[in-house]
């Protein structure tokens, strides 16, 4: 832990509980971990309905967080996303900053809330740390605009990100690959890779072969997750493997994926669990044989780290940050993004591995996730908040 008095930290989030996604989960764990270390943490996030802003205490990850919920409207093309009106973001930023008087502001995106907080905090001389969880391309999956309009919106979004990040003390993103991507995209330098981190004590690794071949995916059922690729690969596996696919999570693509499952004749081999509790999720991880993720838009993938902490081999797309977690031939395999045959072949390798080889991959996952312990993440952000040298 870094030195000095406890800090008053304001974290700005465009997505937070009850939303279920990587950015929200990271902000929750970060905030709760900081409170456990004695800091006073305030969260600015969209409200769950369009009602006047309210300040209250919510218990997140077992810790009390002071929440500033802002009036938010639903983005209709998306199944859960809510946002505040962009032209109101500076107004709310002034109100919250007046009330909290933080030592530091930490934004979790440059989109709306983070954008407003950055501009007002910068004017007031309050240090700002920014973490980028966003690939602007993902947002376009939920628009209803023509492609040529989307391209214009994409350029404007990244230009605005550059202006926002230019006002900060430091910019972080979950992995070195994600940092490289951001530096290339908006022509900035010095982006600091800081793992989202997980508490490995929350997971139950079960070493050894399973009594049934179970493939697991956990996450939002949206276009960029490419769950359809896993379904097509499942259909091409040798029937003798008797593999079952468990899908945990909800999203706008669920109905389409259920239809595809029926079309592929996989109804008795696929279970859509929907949103699950933490206990149910741990059970799914512990009984699975392999974790499969075909996503092409992961800046880190907390669910992949959770799978690794549960001693699961992983088969993942060779895209963006997944190769940072999945080391081909060590704790699983990478496959060519979108290549159904390659995915089926890599899944088959894991599901047919002899017990010694399977256990070797399991232990490689446990070893690989050790560097992502939440303690290291908290140490790093504390140092950034205090403008101190970063830990090794």
Give a structural overview.
The structure is a single chain. 45% of the residues are buried. This protein has 392 residues and is an alpha/beta fold. Helix content is 39%, strand content 18%. The radius of gyration is 21 Å and the shape is globular. α11 (322-325) links the parallel β15 and β16. The model has no long low-confidence stretch (mean pLDDT 90). It has an 8-stranded mixed beta sheet with strand order 3-4-2-1-7-8-9-10.
> Order of helices and strands, N to C?
EHEEEEEHEHEHHEHEEHEHEHEHEHEHHH
CATH architecture classification of the largest domain:
3-Layer(aba) Sandwich
Our estimate of the beta-strand percent is 15-25%
The share of residues in helices is 25-40%
Determine Rg (CA atoms, Å).
Answer: 21 Å
In CATH, the topology of the largest domain is named Rossmann fold
- The unreliable regions are none
Derived from helix and strand composition plus strand pairing, the structural class reads alpha/beta
> End-to-end distance, in Å?
12 Å
Strand tally: 16
Strand order of the largest sheet: 3-4-2-1-7-8-9-10
By CATH reckoning, the class of the largest domain would read Alpha Beta
* Main sheet attributes: strand count, strand direction, barrel closure: 8 strands, mixed
Mean pLDDT metric: 90
Multimeric status of the protein:
single chain
The coarse overall form would be: globular
Number of domains: 2
Task: Tell me the number of helical segments per DSSP (H or I, 4 or more residues long).
Answer: 14
Keywords: Glycosyltransferase, Transferase
Protein name: D-inositol 3-phosphate glycosyltransferase
InterPro entries: Glyco_trans_1 (IPR001296), Glyco_trans_4-like_N (IPR028098), Glycosyltransferase_grp1 (IPR050194)
Organism: Microbacterium soli
